[in-house]
Structure formats: C-alpha cells, structure tokens
Amino acid sequence: MAETKENIVMFPFMAQGHIIPFLALAFQLEKTNKYTITFVNTKKNINKLRSSLPPNSSFNLVEIPFDSSDHNLPPDTENTDSIPYNLVPILIEATLSFKPHFRKLVSGLVSEQNGQKKPLCIITGIFFGWCAEIAHELGVFHALFIAGGGFGFACYYSMWMNLPHKNTDSDEFLLPDFPEASRIHVTQLTDYLRVADGSDCFSVSMQKLLTLWRNVDGILVNTVEELDKIGLMYFRREICPQVWPIGPLLLSTGSKDRAGKQLGISSPVCKNWLDTKPCSSVLYVSFGSQNTIAPSQMMELALALEASGKDFIWVVRPPSGFDINSEFKANEWLPEGFEERIKLSRKGLVVHNWAPQVDILSHESVSAFLSHCGWNSVLESLSHGVPIMGWPMAAEQFYNVKLLEEEIGVCVEVARGKICEVKHEEVVAKIELVMNETEKGKEMKRKACEAKEIIKNAIKDEKNYKGSSTKAMDEFFNAAFTMRESTLG
Ligand code: UDP
Question: What are the Glycosyltransferase N-terminal domain coordinates in residue numbering (predicted)?
Fold first, then answer.
C-alpha cells in the first residue's frame, strides 16, 4: 500500500514578495512526492493562487476569514500590493485577528481521521510567530520561513528590537548585538525605522511580533550558509539555535509579472538581442517589482547609460510619485529622444514594466546588474555569477548591499534610497569601475563566479555528496519528525 504523504501547512504573510518564495518552497517539497501542501491565506490571495497554479497541482488551498474593513483598512485589502506603503503596518497588526481561525483550522487538521496523519509541520511567514503557540498546543512542529537573506533580516530584527539610532546623535551607529563591522548609517534606515521611537504603534507592534520569533522551533532562511554566515550566526545566537539555510529557492515568474500583467518584452526577443552582443558587455538595470526612482533620478540614470557607451537593458516604470501601473510617459520621464536614439543605435533595450529577468541574467552577454538588491534579485544574480551595482531603496535592501559589498565582495553601491540626488557622472564612474577591466571590476567578477559555484554546490544532492542547503533541509525534516515521534510518546 502506498505510504500516506505527510501534510505540511504553509501560511505566508499577504505580500507577493512573501507568497512567491513560499510557493517556491512548496513546489520543491511537492516535487519530492513525499508531502502534500496545505496553503493557507485570505480569500483573495487563495483565488489568485488557484488561477495561477498548474492544473496538476496537488496543493490544498485553504481560506482563512478576514475582513479588512474591521481593521480600518479599505475594503478587500488582503495584500500589500493593493494598499499604499503607510497602511502596511495596519495590515500587519490586523493579521493578529487570524489567531482563532488558525487554531480552528489546525485543530481540524490534527483531528481528521480519514487516513490523514496530523500535519508534520507548520511553516509560517515572519509576522506569524504567534502560530508557534497554537502549533505547540496541538503538538505540531512550527518553523518560520524568512524569504530574505540572513544578514539583511538579522539587521532588520536587531534594528527594530533595539532602535539604536534613537540613542545617538551621530549619523552612524553600531547595532548593539552585532560584530563591529556592522556600522549602520542613518541613510540605511527604512522610512518606518527612521520615525520609530519605541512608543509609536508600529514599533510596539513590530517588537511584539518579532519577540515571538523566540518561541518557534526553528527558522528556515532562503539563503546559503557559506555566503551569509554573520546573519545566520546572529539568528542562532540571539533568537533560536535551529536555523536552516535552504536557499536559493527561486521561482520563475514566467511571462507575467507578479500582478499577472504581460511582460514588456518576450524572452525570445530579449535573447535575440542579447545574442548580437559580445560576451560580458551588457548592463541589466531593474529595481524589482515595487520600487521606482524619483523622476530626476530617472533622467540622470538615462543620461548615465547613454554617456557610458555600454549596451544595456533597462526595465522602466513610472517614477516615484506616479502610479506604478500607469502608462509610461517617455517624453516626460526620459531625456528628449532617448528611446528613439537607443533603438536606432541598438545600444539598449528599454523595456516597459517587466522583463524576463532570470533569462537575462543567465545570458553570457550580461556583465553586471544595477539592482535595488531585493533578495530574489540578489540570489538570481549570484546564481549566474553576475556582479551587482546596488541602489537599495527600502526594507532590508540597505543591509543586503552591505553584505554584498563588505562581506561577499560582489557589489558597489551606486546610490541609496528613493530620494537621493545622484549625478549621472557618478553613475558613469561606477559603471566603468564595474564593467571595464579595472582591478575592482575583475575582482568583483571573480567573486561573483565564486558565489555562483558556492550556490551550485550548496544545492547538490548526490549519492555521495550533499551541499549545505540540501543538508539543512534534511536537518529541518529530521527535527520535525523527531518532534512528531516525541508527541506520539
Ligand atoms: N522580476 C522580473 N522582471 C522584472 C522585475 C522583477 O522577473 O522586470 C522578478 C525578479 O526576477 C525577482 C522578483 O521579480 O524574482 C523581484 O524580487 P526581489 O526580491 O528582487 O524584489 P521585490 O520586487 O520583492 O522588491
């Protein structure tokens, strides 16, 4: 008789940047044929997921009740992609209302009799540490899954828990529970952290939610041990001894963006263009799925790309202050005649809205990536040995750049923040530093290639050799099975 599969409950926070890595993890586990996945979320997110899953998917999709109007949010707010940035803290706080529903849901799964085993584990998003209490009441193993990097999230955690910038008049400060190297500048604070003083609603809420990380059985991180030691050590020392770096977990978004919109260019067109370019000659520029730069910065960047004389692919979206989903107005936001000149000279591809990023980064013509350093972009770049020019704008991106620049050696920072005033001459100088055969440029390329090998090695799963990420995943399951056995007495 076929062995019953183990059930894994997954519950990410309602943001595309969180749901997508959870899906990558879910697909990886589903592929092993050993697990069924129960994916929990609010109705709208579940519906969206249902329409995007492959027809043969065996996921169990479960809705958890949520009415955003009960929480001073606009009606039908069920994902950060549908609200302005300043409402995100309210959405995070509102998720505490899931508690009774989640308890009921897991109790139901635990007591189900029809041949089902009780869930082997519950894996939740970073704001759902409170699920540990429910899991333990019901004798189920519980882990958090951090979709970002170890260093970035360790800084983020330390920053929220200690608010070190409040105790200094200086522009630079140390994170109290970090090694000396982790000096932070005030310009590396996110908008929320800059105004946090420990008594405002968001500080109170974040400190409450992050404190709950200490109750979990372990933490899965979408990173690679060898590249991210400082952050992982921090987690093991300060938060929870069981930390499993299982990355990179990447999910190709295919021909549509995260909101389901078509690509601004097809993969074959992109590939054909890249095929005409010499090896290691093209700069790829993209700021992820949500971030945009100021109109003045867009102009400077366009001038820099043209002045550098390098070939480039640039994914453009309306600049900050304009609706990101509105039509792109080249005549307003780019230098006069820019797009036509670039098209005629074949020096660049200006892609509106969304490009097939992974296909681009995997092409041998690509030399460097000018990126906001969102963690998926970082992993995708390093997986293909592409050095990075960092322009962090939000969240832990500032600390990702720090890791990439100071520890891994694959990045130079070009600019910082959404509201910065970088001049095109400075951008050109950085492009030349990275893409010309300078000592620094060659060193960055060498280190990026080393990172690529480290990543390749980490995910190896061979008869006589398992890489660090494969081993970490095995250890995670060992811990979950050990807990299961102990609860069976
Ligand atoms: N992405 C893409 N095409 C684009 C922009 C982004 O395919 O034009 C994908 C990219 O490959 C990555 C994700 O969107 O997987 C962006 O995630 P990341 O963590 O880098 O940044 P975020 O969008 O969450 O800020």
Answer: 8-228
pTM: 0.94
Which DSSP helix (H) or strand (E) runs through 425? helix 424-435
Give the number of the atom of ligand 1 that is nearest the alpha carbon of residue 148.
19
Nearest 10 degrees: Cα torsion 262, 84, 358, 446 = 160
Distance, CA of 455 to CA of 68 (rounded, Å): 41
Among the residues of 163-315, which ranges form H helices? 191-195, 201-211, 229-238, 267-275, 295-308
Q: What distances in angstroms separate CA 350 from CA 128, 157, 265, 298, 428, one per listed residue?
A: 40, 37, 9, 13, 18
The single-letter code of the amino acid at 58 is S
Q: What is the pLDDT of residues 2-17, one digit of tens each?
A: 668 999 999 999 998 8
Kindly tell me the burial class for residue 454, based on how many C-beta atoms sit within 10 Å of its own C-beta (0-12, 13-18, 19 or more): middle
* Alpha carbon distance 417, 350 (integer Å): 23
The one-letter amino acid code at 238 reads E
Q: How far is the CA of 418 from the centre of ligand 1 (A)?
A: 17
Question: Three-state SS for 351?
Answer: strand
Taking residue 437's Cβ as centre, other Cβ atoms within 10 Å add up to 7
Q: Which amino acid is at 66?
A: F
Helix residue ranges per DSSP H, 65-216: 88-94, 99-111, 131-137, 150-162, 191-195, 201-211
Quote the ligand 1 centre to 377 CA distance (angstroms): 6
pLDDT digits (tens, 9 = 90+) for 285-319: 999 988 899 999 999 999 999 999 999 999 999 99
Q: Tell me the CA–centroid distance for residue 102 and ligand 1, in Å.
A: 30
Ligand 1 atom at minimum distance from 361 CA? 11
User: Quick check: helix, strand or coil at residue 392?
Assistant: coil
Low-confidence ranges of the chain (pLDDT < 50): none
Domains of the chain: 6-251+463-487 (3.40.50.2000), 267-455 (3.40.50.2000)
Q: What is the C-alpha separation between 165 and 162, in angstroms, rounded?
A: 9
Q: Rounded distance, CA 48 to CA 84, Å? A: 20
Asked if the ipTM is above 0.90, the reply is yes
User: Which residues are 388's β-sheet partners?
Assistant: 369, 411
Select from 408, 457, 354 the least CA-distant residue to 149.
Answer: 408
Distances, alpha carbon 82 to alpha carbons 65, 75, 85, 323, 325, in Å: 18, 10, 10, 12, 11
pLDDT for the residue numbered 486? 87
